[in-house]
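hey
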């Protein structure tokens, strides 16, 4: 046993020198470590492996990065990226009787899965893990002086003297002023073919057609660019494109994850809500409010309730026990608050779960006060009518017709014909009606009918006419015939068409302040509240929460949270606005003004252009929190429209292009790569909304592919689609051989190449040089150079000779050329 523990501890030496350490605070691996791994180390490991506890069994300490890097006394236990080969994972799994960690009780399956995921990520560690020693008291007032926590500055665009670049709008003044300080000049404007391709991919995620390119290139009007932006922002494809960006941020998936990974019925409705919200340009503050408390703000409203799927979109174990139920519940709440903090405020809130935040002015007390806002929030599958107005209209029409048919019925039973017909029928059939099978339901009706008529000596009177008619409609033929229209109408009463949606529901009821985040160490109940650093004073909670009434909050806590979050004057609204405009800038420009899009805290990057960031945030609020005007403002600028050419003199001073003197090429995201392949093949199904599918052969846009945590779509995963485990502000971009090999060998890609070939050369009558030019324009959005056209035509001719003779050989060779175009860098990059 001793040998195994030493081996495990010493293995950390190898592990620590082969894992990444990072200062990028919004690195998803670091965020995962802080929220999922560090709490386990604190609770389960520090008692035996901590400098503060003065214990280091096996020579191993785990409460600082330096100590972990130093390692223990034995050999490798962790293979970054390979949990199945890691001794550490085997040890905590208790699969080996001689090697159990912790030695007394096995960790919960969920915790083991989290540690395995961390190793799978490469076991990333922050550059400075900190120590287990008691942290200094956080100075909230001093914390408010940090740039991100200050109110929006009232900034005027600078007046640039002799600008070394074009000024198209106020955004350019901020950029050029910084360039002028370093004596850098901006790039020239990109050519129109590049600009339209850039705009199409940025706003729709799809390539422009040759006809659309021609229309823009040949439009000589001064507002040609503005018209193009207007049309793209009005396109339904815009919502699909930008919804996918947002779904990364909110860790959206349609299954629970972990081993069970059960389906979440109706979860796709949240995706559809986001698409609609972007297309309708829903004010961003409303977009946020609905996601936090839509079910409380508009009870019974389908879209508002669907929006709360944001809170419960995170992974959740499908199987729990009485022992694990409470820890899992706190993990679920932590996921909600961590994602809320990252998505809306750009803060690593989860780092304050076990202790005061190591870097940001976020006390652990504030973490639990905010957690209390979600105390009764869990997940449920609710059934709501998505189109209540349709039902309301149908019901009103039905009610009108019912009134008419009931009037006809009442008129019928008051006619002399009804009286005489019924009395004759009754005299003939009374015994048959009364005597029936004792269990037949109409027997009761018969007895009631007999009793009623007995009292009136078998005659109809004004007093019994309605009751007799109501009973006789089941027996007397003429009465049944007269009643049939009303009966048929009653059977056709419209009902609301309920749809299941995965959203918030009532769960739990109270939370406790947990010492070191441990459920076994409760220390009182926190009252709902917020981060004091994002208030103008620390006693301001009452503005949003109200004064308790009978020990109950005056305002529903999630509604109070939504109000505080969107209050740009005295709440968190100023940071909310900064974070979202930075996300827009990032997706348009390739990097945010704050490079760490999910971390605006002290460990995050500082803004390169803080005045521009505040200007954009102020413009967002001034325009009613609508995002489309901000898109236009950014894209109408000269800095967005500039070329990506290298300028050696600029590069020598600003090698990382932090001052935006060029717009470098960017690789398309996985969904845009797949959608472009379908669009190029003229094979894309543009059906919107509704349930998705796991069939990657579907022709629908990739945003409609079902996101199942245990079954990612291979081609999307290959091009770096994120795991839906936590909020992702910026995707990783990898370059690996399997990407090129997949494009070369995938039957799906080859099918699109064949369709492209037939699209641009439908018959042998199309000359090869003409077809080559059409293929280039369709795939790349530009004409081939004379050299490219000549070489491509020669390539097809030579290849056709190897395939045989005649048109079939030429068609096959031309399809090979089209396939080569789809395998090129130019196809998967936007310049």
């Amino acid at each position: 046993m001793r040998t195994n523990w030493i081996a495990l501890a010493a293995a950390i030496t190898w592990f620590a020198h082969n894992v990444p350490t990072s200062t990028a605070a919004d690195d998803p691996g670091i965020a995962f470590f802080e929220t999922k791994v560090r709490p386990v180390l604190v609770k389960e490991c520090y008692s035996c492996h901590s400098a503060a506890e003065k214990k280091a069994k096996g020579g191993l300490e785990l409460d600082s990065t330096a100590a972990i890097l130093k390692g223990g006394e034995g050999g490798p236990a962790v293979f970054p990226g390979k949990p199945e080969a890691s001794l550490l994972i085997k040890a905590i799994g208790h699969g080996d009787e001689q090697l159990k960690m912790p030695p007394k009780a096995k960790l919960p399956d969920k915790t083991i899965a989290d540690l395995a995921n961390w190793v799978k990520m490469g076991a990333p560690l922050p550059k400075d893990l900190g120590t287990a020693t008691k942290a200094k008291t956080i100075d909230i007032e001093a914390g408010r002086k940090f740039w991100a926590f200050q109110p929006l500055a009232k900034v005027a665009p600078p007046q640039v003297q002799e600008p070394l670049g074009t000024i198209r709008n106020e955004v350019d003044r901020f950029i050029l002023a910084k360039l002028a300080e370093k004596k850098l000049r901006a790039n020239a404007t990109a050519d129109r073919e590049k600009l339209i391709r850039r705009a199409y991919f940025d706003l729709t995620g799809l390539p422009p057609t040759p006809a659309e390119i021609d229309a823009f290139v040949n439009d000589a009007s001064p507002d040609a660019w503005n018209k193009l932006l207007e049309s793209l922002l009005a396109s339904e494809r815009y919502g699909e494109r930008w919804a996918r960006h947002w779904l990364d941020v909110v860790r959206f998936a349609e299954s629970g994850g972990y081993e069970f990974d059960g389906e979440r019925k109706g979860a796709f409705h949240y995706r559809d809500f986001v698409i609609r919200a972007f297309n309708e340009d829903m004010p961003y503050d409303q977009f946020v409010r609905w996601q936090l408390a839509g079910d409380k703000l508009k009870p019974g409203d389908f879209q508002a309730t669907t929006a709360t799927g944001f809170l419960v979109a995170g992974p959740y174990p499908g199987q729990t026990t009485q022992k694990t139920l409470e820890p899992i519940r706190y993990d679920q709440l932590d996921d909600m608050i961590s994602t809320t903090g990252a998505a809306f405020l750009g803060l690593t809130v989860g780092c304050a779960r076990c202790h005061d935040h190591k870097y940001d002015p976020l006390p652990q007390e504030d973490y639990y006060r905010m957690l209390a806002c979600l105390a009764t929030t869990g997940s449920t599958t609710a059934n709501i009518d998505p189109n209540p107005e349709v039902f309301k209209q149908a019901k009103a029409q039905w009610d009108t017709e019912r009134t008419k048919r009931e009037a006809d019925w009442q008129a019928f039973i008051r006619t002399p014909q009804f009286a005489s017909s019924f009395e004759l029928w009754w005299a003939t059939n009374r015994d048959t009606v009364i005597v029936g099978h004792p269990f037949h339901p109409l027997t009761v009706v018969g007895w009631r009918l007999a009793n009623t008529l007995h009292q009136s000596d078998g005659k109809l009177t004004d007093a019994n006419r309605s009751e007799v008619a109501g009973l006789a409609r089941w027996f007397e033929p003429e009465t049944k015939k007269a009643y049939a229209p009303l009966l048929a109408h009653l059977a056709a009463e419209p009902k609301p068409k309920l749809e299941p949606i995965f959203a918030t529901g009532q769960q739990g009821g109270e939370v406790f302040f947990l010492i070191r985040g441990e459920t076994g160490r409760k220390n009182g109940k926190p009252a709902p509240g917020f981060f004091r650093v994002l208030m103008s004073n620390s006693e301001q909670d009452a503005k949003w929460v109200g004064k308790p009434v009978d020990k109950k909050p005056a305002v529903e806590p999630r509604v109070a949270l939504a109000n505080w979050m969107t209050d740009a004057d005295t709440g968190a609204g100023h940071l909310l606005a900064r974070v979202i405009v930075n996300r827009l800038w990032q997706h348009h420009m390739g990097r945010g003004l704050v490079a760490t899009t999910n971390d605006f805290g002290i460990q995050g990057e500082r803004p390169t252009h803080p005045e521009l960031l505040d200007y954009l945030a102020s413009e967002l609020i001034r325009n009613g929190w609508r995002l489309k005007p901000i898109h236009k403002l950014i894209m109408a600028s000269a800095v967005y429209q500039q070329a990506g050419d290298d300028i050696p003199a600029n590069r020598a001073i600003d090698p990382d292009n932090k001052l935006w003197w060029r717009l470098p090429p960017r690789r398309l995201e996985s969904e845009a790569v797949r959608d472009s392949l379908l669009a190029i093949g003229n094979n894309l199904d543009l059906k919107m909304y509704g349930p998705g599918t796991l069939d990657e052969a579907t022709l629908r846009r990739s945003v409609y592919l079902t996101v199942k945590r245990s079954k990612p779509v291979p081609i999307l995963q290959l091009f770096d689609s994120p795991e839906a485990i936590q909020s992702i502000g910026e995707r990783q971009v990898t370059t690996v051989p399997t990407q090129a090999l997949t494009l070369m060998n995938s039957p799906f890609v080859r099918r699109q190449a064949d369709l492209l070939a037939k699209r641009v050369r439908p018959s042998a009558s199309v000359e090869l040089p003409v077809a080559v030019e059409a293929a280039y324009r369709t795939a790349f959005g530009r004409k081939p150079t004379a050299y490219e056209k000549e070489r491509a035509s020669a390539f097809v001719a030579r290849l056709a000779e190897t395939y045989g003779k005649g048109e079939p050989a030429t068609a096959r060779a031309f399809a090979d050329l089209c396939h080569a175009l789809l395998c090129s860098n130019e196809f998967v990059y936007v310049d």
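Residues 402 and 489 are 7 Å apart (CA to CA). Residues 388-413 form the longest helix (26 residues).
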